[in-house]
Amino acid sequence: MQHSSINPRIAALSPYKPGKPVDEVARELGINDIVKLASNENPRGPGEKVQQAIAEAATELSRYPDGGGFALKSQLAEKIGVEPNQLTLGNGSNDVLDLIARVVLEPGAEAIIAEHSFVVYRLAVTCCGGDLVTVPAKEYGADLTAMQAAITDKTRLVFIANPNNPTGTRVSDRQLMDFLAAVPEHVWVVLDEAYREYVEDDDHLNGVSVLAEFPNLIVTRTFSKIYGLAAVRFGYSVSSPTFADLLNRARQPFNVNSLAMAAVMAALEDDDYVAQSVALNRAGMVQMTEGLTGLGYDYIPSAGNFVAFDCGEPGNDLFQRMLQEGVIVRAIAEYGLPNHVRVSIGLPAENERFLGVLAKVGANAAASSEMKAPGS
Ligand SMILES: *Cc1c(COP(=O)(O)O)cnc(C)c1O
């Protein structure tokens, strides 16, 4: 609908398409046995200690949460080796990404992203009146040399997801360090580490450890992935205290709720849960990628808890056919990958179910049954 009193940038946005919820698919198809591998969630469900902490915190629901997040910030700061005044807490890291854009951008200012980047960056930039500059990817990943070359006087912000969603690509430590060293003072760099715990390389650069070297660096992290807490909505950023102070001024006073704080504080004490989730993901990644190769599909090697593969047809077509079989995956045409589908690593039985359905309804299914046909 056209209306002269609506910000035209907002009217032009396409709504964010979340992974299709299990309940919705169950309702539409009338089936119960549904596997959701569409949103890079932790397939194990929340840990026992977290569930207990939430039950205890439920008795205090009539009180506002601690808007400053004192206890949580102290615990988190100690765990990751920073000062509490470097932290900004958010209702999911998406909330923090949004805050960063609001603090840094104004109409006419530019933000740089790589092609195939997380769509939330575009949303955050557009809503603040910033102009988005998208730099072509190199082998599906961020091309930091080209991104550096794209910086102008108008550039205020650069987003780098490492690893990136939906491609699972990483930038090398060397490239990242060179980039950070070369970025001019007027540009803020957001390093989104939503998937860092899944990276198999022990030497993978930890953004927090180089914050002191690069005052214009902001690292964001989330509890939605490895910590298995996507529903409670919690993420945070680590930056210089000066920048954190600005973020905290722009923040809604009670953006993180009491149940989330209780859950996160319990999760921070459960290192076993994280270690087990990493191990589960590693085995599942092998199962998935060997399965994809066996069925004749090329995939983009991924450092995360998901893998994008070339499905040989419009991804949305495969998504629809798999949905009919009760398996929810993610078409990623809106990320500039029209013939790829992203699948999250699930439990072993869920991965097997996905591979079985892909063998049945995927573009290569016809080819492999034709190949078999003459001899059978
Ligand atoms: C999932 C994801 C996040 C996490 O978002 P939350 O708001 O914390 O749930 C952040 N960045 C990327 C690239 C992601 O894929």
Number of domains: 2
Distance between the termini: 58 Å
Helix run count? 14
Structural class: alpha/beta
Helix fraction, binned, reads 25-40%
Low-confidence stretches: 372-376
Shape, per Cα inertia axes: globular
Number of DSSP E strands:
13
Range of strand content: 15-25%
CATH topology of the largest domain: Aspartate Aminotransferase, domain 2
* Strand order in the sheet with the most strands: 2-8-7-6-5-3-4
Q: What average pLDDT do the residues reach?
A: 94
Give the distinct bound molecules: pyridoxal-5'-phosphate
Main sheet overview:
7 strands, mixed
Please tag this protein with its features.
2 domains; binds pyridoxal-5'-phosphate; alpha/beta; Aspartate Aminotransferase, domain 1; four-stranded antiparallel beta sheet; seven-stranded mixed beta sheet; single chain; 15% strand; disordered C terminus
